[in-house]
Design a protein that fits this description.
With 382 residues, the chain is an all-beta fold. It has strands at residues 18-20, 38-40, 42-46, 62-68, 77-87, 90-94, 98-100, 104-111, 123-126, 134-135, 140-143, 148-152, 154-155, 158-166, 174-181, 188-191, 198-202, 206-213, 225-228, 231-232, 243-248, 251-256, 261-262, 266-274, 279-281, 287-290, 305-312, 315-317, 320-322, 327-332, 335-338, 344-346, 352-360, 364-366, 373-380. A hairpin with a 2-residue loop joins strand 5 (77-87) and strand 6.
Length: 382
């Protein structure tokens, strides 16, 4: 099991420091050196994770290498425009970064490679690409005698995943699209490869298409997921809330994302339940894990109940459901709202309305006024 989300940072799932592997056995020029008084730097890489993200580099992969003259991402280049490409399980660089005796280079990196990534302090981040962006973090020194460095990369983005279970839903359950929007959601930004900090530059919706069928008890792996620029939904006002739209079997559901910190290098898993009437977040089940985890078991929510009210008029104060961690939806006519026990329902017209209150964990309910209520149906409320 994965523990509930906490508001402190755990160690990053995929550490990335470009750190020296220690003294090289090569105390002089390497074999086949074009310059007998210099050696070429050798790079190795490793990515620690078991999640559905980049776990290792393979032949054909490439990354940008920034070889600086001293220990600052803003220092002058020792060699410019370096591209590292993996071939036969080894990295080769073009052009080579060669060091003479007494020389030191400080290396930064970002993966995957892009020729436009010329400034390591401002790497463009565009979420429409949905690319797992990796960065090196603090510089690693290389010298003539210690010319092999190991690159272990960090994930620059945060991964939002959606684990959905069915409860009485009889459709196919095919998730085809997820869209996230809000004042705190950036679609574009710039990354500093030394710190991993992303500065947002544009606010637009972030959307991703899927072809995922919801299992009865939720996903055990391969969750519908989206890479996002890290942000928090904590302490958000109504106007500042982050919205979520998911299309299932051609129907779009609109909800607000529960409070959570979507941190760099972490996967935040939002749990939802899909019924014949609605799709609803389970706020107390929101979880955050480091990206070295690969499973998440869905536990069915308890205490399900459905109460139907027949009411007259243009508005009605929703009932207050009692219990711990109560959540649910209020449905009427062709509209729906997340249950909060406070907000009055505003109907488009007067007349008679059937209002369905679908909740979990409630032990009863209170109605402040019976004015306008002509019928209450409790057949599906236990």
């Amino acid at each position: 099991m994965i523990h509930n989300i906490y508001r402190f940072l755990l160690p990053a799932a995929c550490l990335a420091a470009l750190a020296s592997c220690g003294e090289s056995k090569d105390d002089g020029p390497g074999q086949g050196s074009t310059d007998p008084n210099s050696v070429a730097i050798t790079i190795t890489t490793e990515v620690f994770t078991k999640a559905d993200v980049t776990i290792e580099h393979k032949d054909g992969d490439a990354m940008n290498i920034y070889a600086k003259q001293y220990n600052s991402v803003e220092a002058a280049d020792l060699v410019s425009g370096v591209k590292a490409t993996m071939n036969a399980g080894k990295w080769t660089t073009s052009p080579e970064v060669r060091l003479s005796k007494g020389q030191v280079a400080f290396l930064y990196a970002v993966s995957p490679y892009d020729a436009s990534y010329t400034n390591p302090k401002q790497i463009p981040v565009k979420l429409d690409k949905q690319v797992d962006l990796l960065y090196s973090g603090a510089a690693a020194p290389a010298s003539f005698t210690s010319n092999t460095v190991k690159l272990t990369l960090r994930h620059a983005l945060t991964l939002a995943s959606f684990n959905i279970a069915r409860q009485g839903y009889t459709g196919a359950g095919r998730v085809s699209q997820i869209t996230i929007a809000g004042n705190r959601v950036f679609s574009d930004g710039t990354l500093d490869v030394a710190t991993g900090k992303i500065t947002g530059t544009a606010k637009n919706t972030v959307s991703q298409t899927f072809n995922a069928t919801i299992p009865e008890n939720g996903f055990e792996k391969d969750f519908p997921s989206m890479w996002l620029i890290p942000f928090s939904t904590q302490n958000a006002s109504e106007a500042d809330a982050t919205s979520f739209d998911i299309t299932i079997d051609g129907k779009s559901y609109h909800l607000q994302i529960p409070a959570a910190d979507l941190n760099t290098g972490y996967q935040t898993i939002f749990h939802l339940v899909l019924t014949a009437n609605s799709l609803q977040f389970i706020p107390s089940r929101t979880q955050q894990i480091s990206l070295n985890q690969d499973t998440d078991t869905f536990e069915q929510p308890e205490g399900y109940g459905l109460v139907r009210f027949t009411v007259e008029g243009e508005n009605w104060e929703q009932p207050l459901f009692l219990g711990s961690d109560v959540f649910g939806s209020i449905l009427w006519d062709n509209d729906m709202a997340t249950y909060d026990g406070k907000t009055a329902l505003q109907f488009a017209t007067g007349g008679t309305h059937t209002v369905s209150a679908e909740t979990w964990n409630s032990t009863g309910f209170e109605i402040n006024s019976m004015a306008g209520v002509s019928e209450i149906e409790l057949a599906d409320y236990e």
